[in-house]
Design brief:
With about 450 residues, the chain is an alpha+beta fold. The chain has 3 domains: about 100 residues, Carboxypeptidase-like, regulatory domain (Immunoglobulin-like), CATH 2.60.40; about 150 residues; about 110 residues, 3-Layer(aba) Sandwich (Glutaredoxin). The protein contains 14 helices and 13 strands. The N terminus is likely disordered.
């Protein structure tokens, strides 16, 4: 029943009932298909579509219940972000790519958004130029004497920073744009903060941790993925130790969970699943483990069965636990190895696994000679011929029962990507989930 309700929430995002219209006259798009795409948190979906007539006129009808941001797309891949908060909007111009040619009738909010976006882009271009010159006048010997120029640069930087806030204040209070523009600005600012303007780190982190993720405007904003992933990318590149980075990530994860858990279980499930996959993709395993443990311990009732099962990986296979025994073949089990083991799950069809074989060949003999480490490689191949071709003459211990992901070992170890590595001690205790063979090598050489 839980999964059925979650599914219905996704499939029925808006009530259609009465409708609203978006009309347009774009002569360079005459005869083309015009599509309006909306947002539902992480998802995009088609609101409506039509064909422009020979003069470029079109009318799009979309549900009255939809209020927020959308993307107007044409057949030749032109696109425009539009604000759907007014009942009937008309756009006139030549081409969506020629933004300066566009003007709006009964579209005050769209004109405000266009003006705000244009002003922000122009200010950021100037800001970037001033920031480039700032250290030059501070550090270059031939520029140091020009203190009046340096003072002017500092003054302009502060003025532009204040101007961004002033632009937002010009938007009507309680309007969708008054909420949306600061969120959009944070999304845009975070990459620049991570790579160029690190003094903004504390401010951007604090801004994120004060967001109300339950706010209904998020649903149709199209910001969710960029905002959340952008924040964790910012933390990942904050220039601190890995332990400090994981601490900050866990604080943010706890904030999201706490912020959402009381009111929005279905959204919390979606965010948890997307964030889990993001952590796994970027090999942020400690962050994935923290998320998994928090959700399984405090919010298991909101998780779909599929993501809950996947998250169990970090509970069952966390460092310090005894790894599940594996029946490797009729006569051999994993527990028969009384030495440190690098357990590998791979497949002949996996490109990363092919590269991994070459790298593993480099490490295998030194590990075995110096640390008595054995490599136990379990292939999830289904084609015997391909398996034998890929792994012929490798020196480590290979096992495959040709059941693919249905092999019991892959299920017990929650293998959802290849290659997957686990380093075990002689008693089968899990030492670490290496994110690469280089990572495994560091552990073998310095911690075994």
């Amino acid at each position: 029943m839980k999964n059925i309700l979650l599914t219905l929430t996704i499939l029925l995002p808006f009530q259609w009932g009465q409708s609203q219209t978006l009309k347009g006259q774009l002569k360079y798009h005459a005869g083309q298909q015009i599509m309006l795409t909306g947002f539902n948190y992480y998802k995009t979906f088609e609101l409506t579509k039509t064909i422009a007539d020979s003069l470029g006129n079109f009318t799009l009808t979309y549900p009255k219940g939809y209020r927020g941001m959308a993307v107007l797309k044409t057949q030749n891949n032109s696109s425009l972000i539009v604000v759907l908060t007014e009942p009937d909007i008309t756009i006139k111009g030549t081409d969506l790519k020629e933004v300066d040619s566009l003007h709006y009738i009964n579209g005050v909010r769209n004109q405000q958004y266009a003006n705000t976006a244009k002003a922000y882009i122009q200010q950021q271009q100037v800001y970037k130029a001033w920031r480039y010159l700032q250290p030059k006048y501070k550090n270059e010997e031939f520029l140091k004497p020009h203190k009046e120029v340096s003072e002017l640069i500092n003054k302009e930087i502060k003025r532009i920073e204040a101007a961004d806030d002033n632009i937002i204040k010009t938007l009507p209070k309680n309007s969708y744009l008054r909420w949306f523009v600061p969120m959009r600005k944070l999304v845009n600012d975070m990459p620049a903060t991570a790579y160029s303007y690190t003094e903004r780190l504390t401010k951007n982190i604090e801004q994120f941790r004060n967001i109300d993720f339950n706010h209904p405007n998020f649903k149709t904003s199209g910001l969710f993925k960029e905002l959340i992933e952008g924040h964790y990318l910012l933390l990942e590149n904050m220039g601190q130790s890995l332990d400090s980075i994981y601490t900050q990530m866990n604080i943010s994860t706890d904030y999201i969970i706490h912020n959402l858990k009381a009111d929005n279980g279905s959204l919390l499930n979606t965010i948890s699943e997307k964030l889990y996959k993001y952590f796994e993709k970027r090999s942020l395993f400690k962050a994935a483990a923290h998320l998994s443990n928090q959700m399984l311990e405090k919010n298991p009732h909101v998780l779909k069965d599929s993501i809950a099962k996947t998250m169990q990986k970090y509970r069952n296979l966390k460092a310090g636990n005894i790894a599940p025994d594996i029946r490797l073949n009729a006569t051999k089990k994993l527990s028969d190895y009384k030495q440190p083991v690098l357990l590998v799950f791979g497949a002949s069809w996996c490109p990363s696994c092919k590269d991994g074989i070459k790298e593993l060949l480099k490490y295998y003999e030194p590990w075995k000679t110096k640390k008595n480490v054995e490599v136990v490689y379990i292939s999830i191949d289904t084609d015997k011929e391909e398996y034998e071709k890929a792994y012929q003459n490798v020196p480590w211990h290979m096992y495959c029962n040709y059941k693919g992901r249905d092999t019991q070992a892959a299920k017990d170890y929650f293998v959802n990507a290849t290659p997957t590595y686990l380093l075990l001690d002689k008693d089968r205790k899990i030492l670490v989930h290496p994110n690469s063979l280089g990572h495994a090598d560091a552990w073998v050489n310095y911690k075994l």
